[in-house]
């Protein structure tokens, strides 16, 4: 009888372990979750990167409201605390400091810009608070430490595909290059473009630089026009990119010469700023509004119904980021930063609006990029 009882309890223990390993049930997850779970978000809501930050804020609020209403975390609710970094490194540092020390958040979404992330992420790493960057694509971000993640594809994962697809379709062999040399994102994007162009044997006729907040690009563009490139590769944020496109067309650079860029192009604000001069601009992207990915149609409809406009890539990545963090919290069955971090590091094939989403060993995202082109003021897939 004693032996049978021992076997019985051993089997019960094995079953308990099995449930823990093979499927954290909603009931198990809910046991360790209650009350409010403080989550921070740092967006550029003012300053020159507000074109990206406003949609990130909207999408993160939408996602939190959906998750709290659905009971995904049982009786626990996410409390989202949003800070404006003013599009500056100093603003991001102050926002992180406030969220970590005053609000005791377990994780922070953002900041909007890679420049700011380089400055603020070390604060979270030192405090062992998770950061999930949702628009940081420059190199050297996740390398800051093991609490730093991102769901935004790095330029190194997007631009090789962009160059290959545009080469195949447009058949170019000679390009001119322009990039901002005083910003981590634009300099990082240039570094990737430079490497890929060299690997593909594309001749670079000239490389021209500019600074953030520059408004006059006529000297660089006049030189470029005289060299007759087949395409122009640009690593720039939206405001500078719009100025480059506008002035380039006004100087007589033909529409057959496309402006090809990266993540900085992926805001509808670009077409609003440059108007008809943005037509034909091509960019590598992590998301397309018409994607047939899990929940994407519902997300687009919900965002438009609530905010009166379509979401952009930055909204989609912020929305996905909230759900990715919520999934990790639920699976961990805990709001402890280390426990949630351990789950984040192992995410594989999670259904998101970005597609099947995984984290690699470097804490970088893995999913398929796209290439899009502006036609009639809107993004379409480049095919």
From TrEMBL:
It comes from the Bacteria. One of its GO terms (biological process) is amino acid transport. It holds the Pfam family Peripla_BP_6. Keywords: Amino-acid transport, Signal, Transport. Gene3D superfamilies: 3.40.50.2300. InterPro entries: BCAA_transport (IPR051010), Leu-bd (IPR028081), Leu_Ile_Val-bd (IPR000709), Peripla_BP_I (IPR028082). Residues 36-363 form the Leucine-binding protein domain. Belongs to the leucine-binding protein family. This is Amino acid/amide ABC transporter substrate-binding protein, HAAT family. It comes from Desulfomonile tiedjei (strain ATCC 49306 / DSM 6799 / DCB-1).
């Amino acid at each position: 009888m004693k032996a049978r009882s021992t076997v019985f309890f051993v089997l019960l223990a094995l079953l308990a372990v099995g449930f823990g390993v093979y499927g954290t049930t909603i009931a198990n997850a809910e046991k360790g979750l209650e009350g409010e779970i403080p989550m921070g978000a740092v967006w550029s809501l003012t300053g020159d990167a507000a074109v990206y930050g406003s949609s990130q804020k909207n999408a993160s609020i939408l996602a939190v409201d959906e998750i709290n209403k659905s009971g995904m975390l049982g009786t626990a609710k996410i409390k989202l605390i949003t800070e404006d970094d003013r599009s500056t490194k100093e603003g991001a540092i102050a926002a992180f400091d406030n969220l970590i020390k005053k609000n005791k958040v377990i994780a922070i979404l953002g900041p909007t810009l890679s420049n700011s992330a380089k400055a603020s992420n070390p604060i979270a790493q030192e405090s062992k608070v998770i950061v999930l960057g949702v628009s940081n694509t420059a190199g050297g971000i996740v390398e800051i430490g093991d609490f730093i993640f991102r769901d935004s594809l790095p330029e190194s994962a997007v631009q090789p595909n962009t160059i290959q697809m545009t080469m195949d379709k447009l058949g170019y062999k000679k390009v001119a290059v322009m990039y901002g040399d005083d910003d981590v994102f634009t300099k990082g994007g240039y570094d990737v473009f430079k490497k890929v162009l060299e690997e593909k044997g594309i001749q670079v006729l000239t490389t021209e630089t500019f600074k953030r907040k520059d408004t006059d690009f006529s000297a660089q563009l006049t030189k470029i026009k005289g060299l007759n490139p087949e395409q122009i590769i640009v690593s720039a944020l939206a405001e500078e990119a719009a100025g480059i496109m506008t002035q380039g067309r006004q100087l007589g650079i033909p529409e057959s010469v496309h402006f090809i860029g990266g993540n900085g192009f992926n805001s509808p604000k670009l077409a609003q700023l440059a108007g008809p001069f943005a037509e034909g601009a091509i960019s590598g992207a992590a998301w397309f509004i018409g994607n047939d990915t899990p929940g994407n149609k519902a997300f687009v409809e919900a965002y438009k119904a609530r905010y009166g406009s379509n979401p952009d890539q930055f909204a989609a990545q912020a929305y996905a980021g909230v759900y990715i963090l919520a999934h990790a919290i639920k699976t961990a069955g805990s709001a402890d930063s280390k426990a949630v971090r351990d789950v984040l590091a192992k995410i594989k094939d999670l259904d998101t609006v970005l597609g099947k989403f995984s984290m690699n060993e470097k804490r970088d995202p893995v999913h398929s990029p796209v290439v899009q082109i502006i036609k009639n003021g809107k993004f379409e897939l480049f095919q």
